[in-house]
Each structure stands twice: as structure tokens, then as C-alpha cells.
Amino acid sequence: MSTKEPRSNPFLRGHEAAEALVAEALRGGRFHHAWLITGPPGIGKATFAYRFARRLLAGRSEGAGAGEGGSLFLAETDPVFRRVSVGSHADLLTVEREINVKTKRMRTEIVVENAREIPHFMHLTPAEGGWRVVVVDGAEDLNRNAANALLKVLEEPPARAVLLLTCSAPGRLLPTIRSRCRRLGLAPLDEAAMGEVLAAYLPGLDGDARGRLVTLAEGSVGRALDLAGGGGVAMADLVGEVLAAVPDLPVLRAHEVADKIGRDEDAFSTFMDLLRAGLAAAVRDAARGRADPDQSRLLGTRPLDAWVDVWHALTRLQDETEGAHLDKRQALVAGFGLLAGKSAGFP
Question: How far apart are CA 173 and CA 176, in angstroms?
Fold first, then answer.
């Protein structure tokens, strides 16, 4: 099974409890006008939102899409599924970051021009006599003006209209938006669900590699697929080698690793993400008294709060390097210096 865009993906695992909650709310007849679907990146929030939207648009009185055991499943052969998949359903509006027509680049935020479509759309009479549904995918990207435009419809919600917001960072939303939504938190997938999803999406992957991806992705299917496509297992091995050698990573090997990774922008991002994740996991486990011997050896060279400072410094280094298109090889060498407790010009 190949991966599909969330709006056309019928496959969802690991969020059965959330589905059952929504199905029960539908059956109860007291349905909230706005739902805030939260959770870490890559766990299926957008896929869930479109599954939710299809269930509403299919209608609840005829049993269409009712699924079994509280599922919101709707078959790909259903006309509603097909129209949602190709973006042609008259009662569904999607708002998300878009390409800036002037710069030809993806915007970094959802702008007010897009958000202003929401109140007008939600106040229209449903074209098919059921619900009007708006999906705001990545609501944390709303800029201030866009957030205020959204708030207006939340303050005076129209009948037979539902707003679905997906959000990885709810703290970035206006408190007045959060308070007017029913919160639906999705958790990272457990190992069983991750294994099932990866077996479906990556059937050619052997069991050992799949197990490594499950561990590295920490419950995020999106992250696992990114790692699989970007040589993530090999990058994880390099990260493990570097952390195991700290603070005595040989100078020659440090430059070899920097040369290997620094030529590839995707490899640099993957390596730095995994490096910071490995360091964060070690600090977190140590703070909880659960560090394994390798983590204890790594962290034993300096106080725990100093390692937190190293993590922040690595994050700044990655952000500055990627944002300003700086030399990635030099950035890696500087990062190894931070880990070794030496100057930015390591060694």
C-alpha cells in the first residue's frame, strides 16, 4: 500500500478511542460546533480530520459510513469519499498554508485572506442538505489576523456547520480559540499500531529495519516514513556512533562524518534531528532515573543542565544553518565540538 494524502487516505490505526468518542457524540445529538484535534506531528491528525469530515458529509441518519464499533470509516467507493478525495465536495472547505504566488514558495503561515473564507462558507446553506465542514490543517500556523478572523465564527457559530482544527502546537493558538473548541487529543501510536501501519506502507522492509523505524519514530508514522525515505536507519547508526564516542570522537572521524552528511541537505536535517532526539532522550531518561548505561556514560561528563544547554545550542545551530543556507559541513563540526565540550571550531 502506497501512502496517500490525508484527504484520500482511508487507512487509520491507533486512534480508535478518539473515533469512538466522535461517533458517540454524533449519536448523542449534542454535537460541538468546533473540534481541536491535537497531537505530535505525523501521527495522523489530518487523516483523522478528513475521516471525521467524510462521516459528517455522508450523513448519520442513513447509516452511511457508520462503520463498526464506533469507527468513522467510509469506503473508498462511496461517492462522498471520492468527492472529498479530489477536493470537489461542495460542503467541504480546507484551509492550510499555501504557495505564495509572488515568491513561488510555501508560505510560513496561514494568512488572513484564507481565513476570511471560513465565516462566509460556514454561513452558507449546505448544498447537500447536511453539514458544512471546514478543515483547518495546521491551525498553529494561523497568523494573528487570520486567527482573529477565525475567532469571529467561533463566537457566533452557524447551525449545521462544523470546524475541525488540526494542531501540533496548541500553545500557539489564541486562548480564546482553544476555549471555544472541544479538545480531541491524539496520542503517538503504540508499537503494535506502528508496526501494522509500516507493514502496510512499507511491505518490502525487513522486520529488523521496521523495528528500528518504530523505535526512532516514537509513535509518529509521518516521521517513520520520512526516515525510511531519507536513509534514517543509516543516519541513526551514525548518530549512535557519534554519541558513543563523546567526548573523545576522533578528529579524523568527525570530519569524515561531516563530509559525508554535509553534502546532502536532507541528510543534514535527518542527522541533526536524530542527534538532538538522542540527546533529549538521554537527558529525559536520566532526569527520571531511568538512564541506561550508554546514556549514563554520555551524560556523566558534565552536569545535566549543561546538557540541556547543549541541546538548545544544537537546535539553534541547525535552525541558523538551514534558515540561512550556511555551510552544513562546518555546522556539523561545530556541533561535534559542542558535544565534546570544546570550542565551536572543534577540535
Answer: 8
